[in-house]
Each structure stands twice: as structure tokens, then as C-alpha cells.
Amino acid sequence: xxxxxxxxxxxxxxxEGLDFDKDDKETKVINAVLDVLEDLALAVSDLDDEMVVVxxxxxxxxxxxxxxxxxxxxxxxxxxxxxxxxxxxxxEDMYEVECPNCGELIYFDEEIILDGKADCPAxxxxxxxxxxxDCDCCEDEE
Length: 142
Fold this sequence. Notes:
The protein has 142 residues and is mostly helical. It folds into two domains: 4-72; 83-134, no CATH class. It has four helices and four strands. The strands form two sheets. It has a two-stranded antiparallel sheet with strand order 1-2. It has a two-stranded antiparallel ribbon with strand order 3-4. Strand 1 and strand 2 (105-109) form a beta hairpin. Helix 1 runs antiparallel to helix 2 (25-72).
């Protein structure tokens, strides 16, 4: 299969083989059209080369993104639920809190809840938590 530049070169060869009069108006038009076709063929060839580079870069970004997704969503790998495509909040150490100021649903881990306060990432409101730990080590302190 011939490339576009090869096809244009073939056409130029055919026209040259016809032995047209170089001073004839029609010959000048045909040669000008062939020159434009040659420029277009070279531009298409350059675009094809650039597309290969962009495709390789996009594939690399896609692989990097997949790695980041795997790291970011690693907490769902150990999910004990029976669903195949787990989007649920199965992690026992995460708590859903609704901001009383803006109504945004926010997820905090147990450590933040036990600290007693955190800022709402949506509106900046300071959220305070009053909770009692029911673990065995805290019962010994009482």
C-alpha cells in the first residue's frame, strides 16, 4: 500500500511522462496542482508522525493514571461486601458527616473523629465531634 507522498510522486511521474509543453497554460496549472498535492502529502505525513508521538504519550499518561487510581482506591481492594463493582463506603474506619453549615457530605477517618474537630473542605466551617471511644484500651483509662 502506497503512502500519500508516494502516490503524489507517482502522479508527478505520470505527468512528466506525458511530455506536455512546459510553457502551455494547462501544464502550468497541472504542475501547480501537483505542487499543492505534494505539500499536502508532506503535511499529512508530518501529522501522522506527530500522532504516533502523541499516542505514545497518551498511553504513558493512561498507564500512570491507572497506577495512581490503584494507589488511591487501594482501600476498596479489601472490601468485604459481595458487590462486583464496589463504590460503596465499606471501610469501617470512615465516617460520613454532613456539614451543618453547607450540607456537604464529608468522609472522615476514625483518627480525625477522635481528634474532636476538623474543617469542612467545602465551606471551611469548623466541625466539632463529641464521641466516646468504646475500645478496650480506653475502657481501662476510665
